[in-house]
Amino acid sequence: MGMTKTPIPRVRAAAASAVLATALLAGCSSGIDPQDQAAAAGSETAGPVEGSGATPRLAVSYDGGVLVLDAESLEVVGQVPVDGFTRLNPAGDGRHVLVTTGDAFEVLDTGTWSEPHGDHSHHYTAAPAFTGTEFAANKPGHVVRHADRTVLFHDGSGLVEMFDPHGLADGKPAVDSHTTAAPHHGVAVELENGGLITTLGDEKTRTGIVVLDRERREVTRNEQCSGVHGEASAANEVVVFGCQDGVLVYRDGAVTKISSPDAYGRIGNQAGADNSDVVLGDYKTDRDAELERPQRVMLVNTTTAAMTPVDLGTSYTFRSLGRGPRGEALVLGTDGFLHVIDQYTRAVTNRIPVLGAWTEPEKWQSPRPALFVDGATAYVSDPAAKSIHVVDLETGTVVRSAVLPQSPIELTGVGG
Prior knowledge:
The protein is mostly beta strands. The chain is 3% helix and 45% strand.
């Protein structure tokens, strides 16, 4: 069971800089006794502590704040208060998490990072804290990380903001911006060549995507994607966007449509992997359902343009999708099992028992189990039991569990 540290106050830039200013330690030695590491990591005023390797951490939202855990021990190393419903996304630099509040994307330093030093790196931990950096937003929406760039979408204004997340350690990085033709619940991806893909729509309808070059001149568009929602990247910078009747696939400057096998076959949430040409998506076929609890997922092969549904025999939710180290499709079912699917044979190769059976709540903001995957390790939150479980994907077993001081809602992590 993880121990709870004293809650860390929410701080702004000056206080956060004071806490973390000693990160650039002289020479190759931190000068901190290793025996004092645990105490220093939990102190509000202690400077960074050097470790022998990177220290992954998890961020877990709850009603009233965010917990930060050591990903190995599951010990709570920090707790920051946040009012209202929040969402969590890794910022993209292995250190910071973007906390989406009512009117901003706020930057949380999870307190773990590495600094290159010649032919090696030094690894540090410190107390988690809000840095004071924020991106004010009118209805903050999707966060996308791709090609070492992070993109924020403002649903209420159509503003798209793009930046290098590695600059967050020094404050607010330089930001490039673009505004879509009309505000809508959208998403955008910045490409390796500086180009930009954004969704098309307005407050009533969403119709497709447009591809822009680095000067933001239009390259191509496709408006055969009613209800466009969400994105996922596959190998070779292929990007997939969900539609109510299939997906749009961007590849090498062109966009193609792959249609669902059903007249209404909605894909709204996807999980991709840079080492795979297959994208995993949820799959709903009841247009009139207020809350459909689907039991099939969809595998989209972006090379062959094949869409193949996989019947799990259990329902799942939008927080249930992930990918394994070899591109396996992972789905956390309401039966309490983590279902492992071979991306090419479409066979369910394993069902790993993780938690008890559960029911998807009516409101999407309500707590429900969530899945986060880091390499060969999967983390599963269990709101009913106020717990978190660690799954070794190589052995297919739960190797660690801990009880949390709060009931978890969203779950993400950073590598340090």
